[in-house]
Each structure stands twice: as structure tokens, then as C-alpha cells.
Design goal:
Blueprint: E1 2-8, E2 11-13, H1 16-23, E3 31-34, E4 41-50, E5 55-63, E6 70-72, H2 75-81, E7 87-88, E8 97-102, E9 107-117, E10 120-123, H3 125-130, E11 138-143, E12 149-158, E13 165-169, H4 170-175, E14 183-187
Parallel strand pairs: 1-13, 2-5, 6-9, 7-9, 10-12
Antiparallel strand pairs: 1-14, 2-6, 3-4, 4-5, 4-8, 8-9, 10-13, 11-12, 11-14
The structure holds zinc ion.
Length: 189
């Protein structure tokens, strides 16, 4: 049960409304690079974010636009900004950290929206069956290597359209010395 690993750098998803405040009216994101999940892309656009203790520039905006604005950062970033974001599934932003977004045309003070993304595996229903994971919502993943170990609390995100891949943030990736495309081994709870 090997799974390829993708490391997600800090990034943001924006609503149309917030995109227009930050970049101007009727602004459209430009595709820089397609991501492994179908339809998702890194855009050419970046924004700055501010917290009580600091600022981080050039956070990549991922497209397409979404129904919610969400900023996904690492714990290391959170220290720099002076924030204490919760670990959440994508889209679960109620009560998450406030953060200020800075674009070329405007600024937004969000009362919530900043999270540390939970570890997750994108997987199709067929693969869930093939791997015998029907009764699991979470799994562990074994990482080999000199700084290897077992990663707990990895959520299974199931959709027909998904490309099979484990997504970790840069703190997890660095802690286990993982490079983009390395393989982990899924362990059932
Ligand atoms: Zn993901």
C-alpha cells in the first residue's frame, strides 16, 4: 500500500469577491502550473498576508476560485505571523484564525480563514475498495529514511476525480526529510 507524497507549500484559495478586492474588478487568475488534482492549478498571482507579529509575502493563489477564502500555512509560518491557526480539513474555516490579506489593489481583514491543513490522502472510491480501506476515515502512513517515522491522523478524502496522493505541509515534509514524489506506506488503524 504505497502512496506517492506531495508537499503543499503555503497557499491561499479566494472567493471571486475577495479576488476582485485584492486584484481589481473582473480580475481572472492566470494559470502558472497545473496541480496533480484535476482542475486545480497554481496561478501566477501571489498575495501577502499579515498577522499581529509579522508578514509573509508572495503566498501563491491556487485556482479556480472557491466559495470560501482560505489561507493554508504551516506552524512555522504561524509563529512568524503571531497566529495560532487550528488544524482543519479544507473548507472547515469557522472559528479559524483571523488574518489580513494584501493584494496589489486592496487589502482584506478576515475575521477567520487561516488554517493549518490536516494531513490527507486524495483517493478514488475504487482505490478505497482495492486497498481495503472501506471502514477507515483515517489512516497512518509510514515514512522510511534517516528521519522516518509514522504519521498519524491522515484523513481519506474520497472522490471519483481524485489523483491518489498524500498531501503534507512543509513542516511535516521537512521533519521527515521528504521530497516531492517520495513514497509512503499506508497503515490501517
Ligand atoms: Zn490535497
Amino acid at each position: 500500500m504505497k502512496v506517492p507524497i506531495g508537499i503543499s507549500a503555503r497557499h491561499t484559495h479566494l472567493t471571486k469577491e475577495h479576488l476582485e478586492i485584492l486584484f481589481g474588478r473582473d480580475y481572472c487568475l492566470k494559470i502558472l502550473k497545473k496541480l496533480s488534482q484535476p482542475g486545480e492549478y497554481a496561478s501566477l498571482e501571489t498575495i501577502g498576508v499579515k498577522g499581529p507579529k509579522g508578514k509573509i509575502e508572495k503566498i501563491r493563489v491556487l485556482g479556480p476560485i472557491r466559495k470560501y477564502t482560505q489561507i493554508e500555512i504551516s506552524k512555522t509560518d504561524a509563529y512568524k505571523l503571531g497566529l495560532t491557526p487550528p488544524v482543519r480539513e479544507s473548507g472547515d474555516i469557522v472559528g479559524s484564525s483571523p488574518i489580513t490579506l494584501v493584494g496589489p489593489k486592496g487589502q482584506i481583514e478576515l475575521s477567520e480563514g487561516c488554517i493549518i491543513a490536516s494531513r490527507h490522502i486524495h483517493i478514488t472510491p475504487d482505490e478505497v475498495k482495492k486497498l481495503g480501506l472501506e471502514n477507515q476515515t483515517k489512516v497512518c502512513v509510514l515514512i522510511d529514511g534517516v528521519k522516518g517515522g509514522i504519521i498519524h491522523n491522515v484523513t481519506l478524502k474520497v472522490s471519483e476525480n481524485y489523483q491518489f496522493e498524500l498531501h503534507l505541509d512543509t513542516d511535516d515534509g521537512n521533519a521527515f526529510l521528504i521530497n516531492q514524489g517520495d513514497m509512503g506506506t499506508i497503515i490501517k488503524y
